[in-house]
Amino acid sequence: MWAPFCRVELSSQARGALAVIVGGLLVLLTTALWLQPATEGRGTHQQLGLPPCTFVELFQQPCPSCGMTTAWSHVVRGHWLSALACNAGGAMLAVTAIATVPWAAVGVVRGRLAVPGAAMSVAWGVTIIIVTLFQWLARISL
Description:
Layout: E1 5-9, H1 12-34, H2 54-59, H3 68-75, H4 80-110, E2 112-116, H5 118-141
Antiparallel strand pairs: 1-2
C-alpha cells in the first residue's frame, strides 16, 4: 500500500543536520525579506553584490533561473502574483522553504518526523523543474 508519509525517528546527527537546514532556510528567507524586489522582475540578486546574469549578457535572453531571487523576495512579502510572474518555479521553491522551516523545526525538537515518500518528493521537484522550464521557454519564444 502506498503511504504519502512515513514516521521516522531521528538520530542526534540527523537532528543536527535538520537544524542546519532550518538555519540555512531562515538565512535565505531573511535575505529575501531584506532585498527589495527588482521592478524589472529580475536582477534582485545584484543587491548582494553579484554580477548581472551571464546568460542575459551573452544571449540577451533570460536564463531559466532569472527572476528566482525576485520571486523569493515577493513571496516573503505575500505578493503571490508578482512572484509567479517573475519566476513561478522560484515562487514554488520559496513556498516550499517557508513550509519546510516549521516542519523541520518540529522534527529537531521532537526527534521524530513525518517524512514525505520518495515518490511525492520527486514529483514535487520535477514539477518545479518543469514549471521553471516551461515559463522560460515561453519567455524566450515571445
